[in-house]
Amino acid sequence: MRALTWHGKHDVRMDTVPDPRLVNPRDAIIRITSTAICGSDLHLYDSYIPSMHRGDILGHEFMGEVVETGLKSTLQKGQRVVVPFVIACGKCFFCEKEQFSACDNSNPAEKADLSEVAYGYAMSGLFGYSHMTGGYAGGQAEYVRVPYSDVGPIVIPDGLEDEKVLFLSDILPTGWMAAENCEIEPGDTVAVWGCGPVGLFSIQSAFLMGAHRVIAIDHYPHRLELAKSMGAEIVNYHDVKVREALTEMTGGIGPDAVIDAVGMESHGFTIDNVLDAVTTTKLGTDRTHVLREVIMACRKGGRVSIPGVYGGMGDKIPIGALMQKGLQVRTGQTHVQRYLRPLLEMIGEGRIDTTFLISHRLPLEQAPEGYKMFKEQQNEVTKVVLKPEWQKDAA
Ligand SMILES: NC(=O)c1ccc[n+]([C@@H]2O[C@H](COP(=O)([O-])OP(=O)(O)OC[C@H]3O[C@@H](n4cnc5c(N)ncnc54)[C@H](O)[C@@H]3O)[C@@H](O)[C@H]2O)c1
Ligand SMILES: [Zn+2]
Ligand SMILES: [Zn+2]
After folding, report:
1. Residue 297 confidence (pLDDT) above 80
2. What is the pTM of this model?
């Protein structure tokens, strides 16, 4: 089959690779119909995540048709499914608590070693996201093997086309969990850093959860316009000092909750950001400028939600502000499985629409161009969807 493979910094290629096959009874094989490029994929593209091997197949946002099932899979051939990017067994201590991204079984022991060193305990497996998270082949391919297919994938009813449901695989539940982690109360003002897919879906979710005001921060005019069209007030950090603007907009108090939907690759020419950028290496990579800013900007006693991905050690975190102001912090890889059913229902009822985000649709064969565009033209390119069935047209 054809698949997008990683070969090093800014080097991803379409390769012909062996087809996946069933390995365990709970596996299923999915023929991919749609897959997307995520902001998290850019961390791999920029080579910030350790333990990537040449030839690894990328992609963790995907959906498709079930073509093969193991003896213990509950799926049936021909069903259309969206697959969560988090791989979870459904039965361990953590899965029983619905903390799926902490699953203790989905990251094979010999691969989990590095995440144990880096994080104290091994994390769950993720699709297409380095050997620290299991080294599983991803879904930017014609086919993918889905372990624990009786737990993760959600069957999509007829009549809901791919583009309406594809983002259930990651960014929609991620935006939802980011807002949920803010424990929004009536009257609250929520500030969201980053108007990429995760930030925009956090804004949408915050309003659905009853936020009175949402303030969106970025520097790309088009992305800020999208945030505005969703009802957010906007702050362009090129034009103003973010914390001062937020203090003024909130009557001197600061936002009740803050969301870092940027993560380890924050932009901007502030002194701390420039210092972080020149001193980073692999696990010491994290540019925590936005994390520092959200902590400083949050009101006393407020809530800090961090969906943005960090990978290793961060420097100069204002721990004093965090402690003295009594902030609550919640973060994590999304427990996708927990949110699939309620979010699918909201999509079906027309309460959530995610299609506005898609700016580019390409055949899978053009995935390398898709990565380059998503990396270099972030203003216009808000989300790239890849379609393997368009291969022949592209050839
Ligand atoms: N927790 C999870 O499970 C999970 C899932 C998916 C994505 N993520 C992470 O969420 C983050 C966002 O993902 P995305 O797909 O929206 O990425 P993206 O790269 O498309 O968007 C990031 C946005 O942040 C903006 N930004 C950069 N520096 C900023 C600053 N100093 N202040 C304000 N905005 C700034 C950029 O201009 C960009 O619009 C990434 O770190 C990604 O890895 C986490
Ligand atoms: Zn993702
Ligand atoms: Zn588990």
Report:
1. yes
2. 0.94
